[in-house]
């Protein structure tokens, strides 16, 4: 069934984009750091998973459980060690945006260089649950369904964390009004580090999930970071629902174009969509105009 | 580099200092132009071409991004278009016409893209320009594979290394002269205001979009020309070579290291970085990316205002101590 095919592929791809973009929107919307090395964290997690699965005989789901806290820790450290000096220097003013872009650019090259040195430029993959499952007359690999399920679970978990817990409320307060949050006793820098860390956990989990169903290479982080940025900006910075909608839009647009037009034009479609949204709604689909 | 104000000249009364500076610039330029006759070997010319190429690119980049503070990563989009244009029409048209076509296409693309995107600000613009380079790359790739069915082109034109060197030198003089002229025009003043505060600029009646658009197109034109001039050097061109994103990043690093707000700032950054990369990529080809990243981070953390800002602060401090 063609329709089911497209729906499944679109949801898996779009769900992945949405998940990855949610982490970035936390880092950018709350911690105010435009992290361009984000995609490298994703790819590093994918390679880590590959190593654990093929060399240490771990189950990919076990790796997923390990990669979430590891990603949190690594990103928390990056914020504390590398980003804090910039935050202090700029007083979290407009200079922080450019400074963080440039610093994370450096980090991007550094990490990508290390990955290239360690793994070279080839594509890597491993086989996990690749037997086909029949859904409404459409064949789909079981691993894609597993990935889709975990992506949905992680996304839902994040949503509940942000809306139902004390920590989540504080994080949202920092996102909305960073200057007034201290007035109600919120330690903005501590919360920023935590939000940056949670973003890192999401992207590390995303990398593990990605490695379950797609081949990956050391240089593909940049493309994923760019797509995540496009999703974040399209959805409205700091908005989880926006991430979900924009991520699915992108996933479906890519699936449709790759299926019916030409796989070589997916990036062009992404961009056309991005530009269209920005021209019609400069603050994103769900963003407020004056932020 | 010859154009740098020496400390002695800066200390003099303005008139005499400026005259000495101009004499120094002309002399340095003559020396650079005469280099091929002074027994410079092929290697030296090749290094010179490399430095001049980045000199043109970084200065042209800073022409737009310096005053407006819009960090553009589209450098390689225009550079690649220039190079690709030269590869496509290089053997059928006379060389000046090739350059004119490359210039025209770059400027038109910059105008179209600028109209749509210069309303974006900050991060949006950075991401968009970064994506633009990839987009142009993919589109050219797609067009070559599906329509012309020739991925990769050979370009055989009768242009020597020394001629490339001279063309780049002329281009550098052109960029610097343009930058100098803009700084003294109403447009330059308008851009300074935009860079300081875009809302204020709009309120005092500056047509900010028009000013940004104009400068973006001028900057893109020079970058496209540089691409066309460099094309014969490669002989073989495919989209991956012409649209290599590392070029955008290198240009950004160099301009920031020197200081993007000064006319000669980017040049000051080009020399050390170009020489460093020349040496490093020879001896550590596999570690190039890592080194690029480290240089990038070192600049952001330790030299945020660029070398020019560093020099100026030092001179400022020295001046204060002298007056005590």
UniProtKB/TrEMBL annotation, chain A:
Compartments, as annotated in UniProt: Cell membrane
CDD domains recorded: TM_PBP1_LivH_like
Transmembrane intervals: 6-26, 33-52, 58-79, 100-121, 141-162, 192-216, 228-253, 265-286
GO biological processes: amino acid transport
One Pfam family named in its UniProt record: BPD_transp_2
Keywords of the record: Amino-acid transport, Cell membrane, Membrane, Transmembrane, Transmembrane helix, Transport
One GO CC term on file: plasma membrane
Its membrane topology: Multi-pass membrane protein
A GO term for molecular function: transmembrane transporter activity
Main location: membrane
Assigned protein family: Belongs to the binding-protein-dependent transport system permease family. LivHM subfamily.
Protein name per UniProt: Amino acid/amide ABC transporter membrane protein 1 (HAAT family)
Organism: Azoarcus indigens
